[in-house]
Amino acid sequence: MVGKKDKKAVLTGMLTAIGLVSALSLHLCSRMESKLAEGAQVIRNEWGAGDYKIRLLAQAGEWRREIALSVGERQYTFEEKEKLLKELLASLPDLVKGRNQDLNHVTTDLDLITSVSGYPFWLSWESENDKRIEPNGRVKREEILKGGEWVSLRVLIRDREQEISGNYELRAFLLPEILTEEDLFFQQLEERLIREEKDSSSGPVDLPQSMDGKEIRWKEEKSEYSVFVFLLFMAGAVLVRWGVDRDHKKSIQKRNKQLLAEYAGFVNMLRLYLIAGLTVKKAFIRIANDYASQKMSLGKKYLHQEIETLCWQLENGMSEEQAYQEWGKRCGETRYRRLSFLLGVHLKQGNRQLLSLLAQESEAAQEDRRNFARKAGEEAGTKLLIPMIMMLAVVMMLVLLPAYLGFGTV
């Protein structure tokens, strides 16, 4: 089992390694993506990639200064655009054919692109027959005659400045859908089932037992959710178990906090009863009786419930020393274990020394109680820190937003 120091060392080493790798990767990426060429040139982004800002360090002798430069994307002249348009129109059939051999043999969907890398144009498409070729390039070849069918595609090409804009036409020849023998068989079977269902609208549907010399066996396909339901319940069981464990831990923490908070008062009360002349056994019985009479108003008190159990054990013949030891174990906290040991020892040494030890224990318990209250206050302050920061952020936004938007200017 990994110790606490070893675990810290492992986590620290992992975080350090991740940090070094991340820093090195960022450094290499920044070097690879440098926009400054060797010949003191700043490289522009291609058309459509957008503008960017670069920080340059200028050195002139002993003088050094950082300069921020905004670099716009590449712009084309009118003559360059005309030349690029001719190149685009020449290569457009190959760009939109997709996985087809060419536009004269269309058997799958087309790739109706809206832009081409390296060309400063936008393209928008319109089909002559949307039932055959949709605007997104999807091709529907159902019910096309054996000879095939031509469909015209119109494309509008324009640039950002609207200096060049024009409509152009491409023609695609759609080949009929080629069905295998299996596809054709099941297509005919489906059509036959549809006819049977319509013909027997008032009774059961008779499924064909054979067709084209092939025997047909039928089986109902049912949705199987058993595995999903099992996994769902397994996940629920895990969540329930996690929730029960979480609630159990919370209840234990609540119990321990309450026991620690009541320890100082309990030790003082026990000491006062002993000073008044009661034995330890009678003092416990007296405290249990006081709690029983005020149980409705005091609510659930874990310490007094353990004291009631202790009194019940004493009444049923358990020895005082064993009863005190059992009581300390049930309370669980170190303070109660030590007190149960002191109560067991007093049976042999007498009440006088016990009173002295209880006085010391009372002072130590009071100090623990003050530390406990201080710690609880710090935890409450920490929980309030996030809402306070959020409120501060809202106030700062309310103050700075009008100034940022220019409100109140003359």
What does this structure look like?
Helix 4 (226-275) packs across helix 10 (351-405). The protein is 57% helix and 12% strand. It is mainly alpha-helical and 410 residues long. The longest helix is centred in the C-terminal third of the chain and has 55 residues, at 351-405. The chain contains 10 helices and 7 strands. The strands form 3 sheets. The chain has a 3-stranded antiparallel β-sheet with strand order 3-4-5, with no helix packed on it. A two-stranded antiparallel sheet has the order 1-2. The protein is elongated. A hairpin with a 2-residue loop joins strand 1 and strand 2 (63-71).
In terms of DSSP E residues, the strand content is 5-15%
Order of strands in the sheet with the most strands?
3-4-5
Instruction: Please provide the ordered H/E string of secondary-structure elements.
Output: HEEHEEEHEEHHHHHHH
List low-confidence stretches: none
Mean pLDDT: 77
Which descriptors would you attach to this protein?
single chain, 410 residues, mainly alpha, 3-stranded antiparallel sheet, two-stranded antiparallel sheet, 10 helices, 7 strands, 57% helix
